[in-house]
Design brief:
The chain starts with 14 loop residues before the first strand and ends with a strand. By secondary structure, the protein is α+β, with helices and mostly antiparallel strands. The chain is 37% helix and 17% strand. It folds into two domains: 118 residues, Putative Large Serine Recombinase, Chain B, Domain 2 (Hect, E3 ligase catalytic domain fold); 142 residues, no CATH class. The strands form four sheets. The protein has a four-stranded mixed sheet with strand order 5-9-11-12. The radius of gyration is 23 Å and the shape is elongated. The protein binds zinc ion (ZN). The site of zinc ion has 8 residues, from loops.
Length: 291
Amino acid sequence: MSKVSKKISAAPSWLGLTDDRLSFVFLPDRAETVRKIFELAIGGMGSYAIANYLDELKVPTFTRAINWDNTTIDSMLRNRATYGEHQPKSFAAGHKKGIPSGPPISGYYPAVVDKATFDAAQAARQQNLAHRGRKGNDLANIFGDLCSCAYCGSKVIFHRISNVQVLVCEQVLNDGACSRSAWTYKDFENTVLAFLAHPALLDQASYDLKAGLLDLVEEIKGLSSDEGRRYARRVNITVLLKRIVAGLLIHSAGNLSQPRHSSAQIRKDIAGRFLAIHLQEGPSYTCISIG
Ligand SMILES: [Zn+2]
């Protein structure tokens, strides 16, 4: 941290000031909250989901507010002070919003995240905004964009067919050439989570994957035993899945070898449907529906 010779008027909300207002104070609890916010953003969570997550876990806000606000989280994620950078500004008379004056000063604030983490969060936010829109429900499909179609290679996306949530190939929705079949979302989620929580998988997992898998198993177990933290657990599972799973290749019509086009109704949950789970830096596994 650089020496600050004059009194500081304000600190970022996650830092404190010494009594003489000459230097910043690092607040470990708040720093930990900021790091969690970055971790969730990098895991694909939008600011609404992050706010709900912090509220459910009763993480104190940095103001007197009781609940977290998504705009606070958004501006924190964009704030370069999180990695210590300060942009001096000059203020024209009567204007509250300053204009940048001179080069940014690095190491001005105690950093709570590093620059690489900050950059990763910016990239994830851009992707998130492009895919879901601002208010999208990040938890309806915890697999995000990990799913693709075994027949045509298109993305398999979350969709509703007469009020039933399903996963279906994008080509099918566009009337393209692919099998007109869908996998009921709930059955798919149960199948994948049961597979990933199986003790045999942990035995085979590489050292790097083991820690993530152990966390995942814990969160999956908690889903049924700990109703009060269901939302936060689903957020954690979503973030962990992104870290553990490289891709899910879905055969929603079973052993069909050729994609085919038909104008028929989309059929749900065809017997013999299966998927291939490809783990990060690991092998692929074939997994059949448990439903
Ligand atoms: Zn397809």
